[in-house]
Hints:
The protein folds into two domains: 5-142, 2-Layer Sandwich (Fructose-1,6-Bisphosphatase, Chain A, domain 1), CATH 3.30.540.10; 151-260, D-Maltodextrin-Binding Protein, domain 2 (3-Layer(aba) Sandwich).
Amino acid sequence: MQGSANLNIMMKAARKAGKSLVKDFREVENLQVSMKGAGDFVSRADMAAEKILKDELMNARPNYGWLGEETGEDEGIDPTRRWIVDPLDGTTNFLHGLPHWAISIALEHKGQIVSGVVYDAAKDEMFYAEKGAGAWLNDSRRLRVSGRSRMIECIFATGIPFAAKRTLPATLQDLARIMPECAGVRRFGSAALDLAYVAAGRYDGYWERELQIWDIAAGYLIAMEAGALSGPIREGQDPLRDGNLVIANGAIYDGFAKLVRARD
């Protein structure tokens, strides 16, 4: 797919930050790590990647706003556009030497996500989409959600809360309802990649609570452009702004969403 100038800027920035992260990933035991919260770590590699991304994106579009997981929010001269960035989604995997983490970059315009990139640097897989132009993997593969229509054949993904977060009881109840009805549930530790995998048909659906917009903005657009259906877990919520979402292919969405929402 021939992307827009903004999408090309995003992909270039993701690859540059990805090279830095892969270098540090190979020496993960030497990383200087600081505690950011219970079970939530931020590494030197994480901060270095966000600096690369911010430098690349803001140098290319100095008037845009910025929202980054590590560096917070900066209002831009152009109030209608901002970058939304997670430099390392899957930090815990990264710090344990597990090659399942990603860079997530989204561009928001007038409150809508219009471009998204999720880059799995360890596997060199670049998932990307622009609103109305479909979703793609690397240079030429068009992404489509799976066509499975029987729940018992489907694999779903979620995040299991760490450190006894308050959403743990709800998630355990979800699992008790969903697991008997499907082929399996996976918890791989990166919301951005979970959504990209829904887009690629590797997962049939995904749900999670209390995510941050930088975790899901890019992946959400990619999955939707690949044909997914999505909605909030609780009525009246906004999946992106409130971070509570259920998403799946169209054939099983209604049944899957009903199971997720049963207690809510």
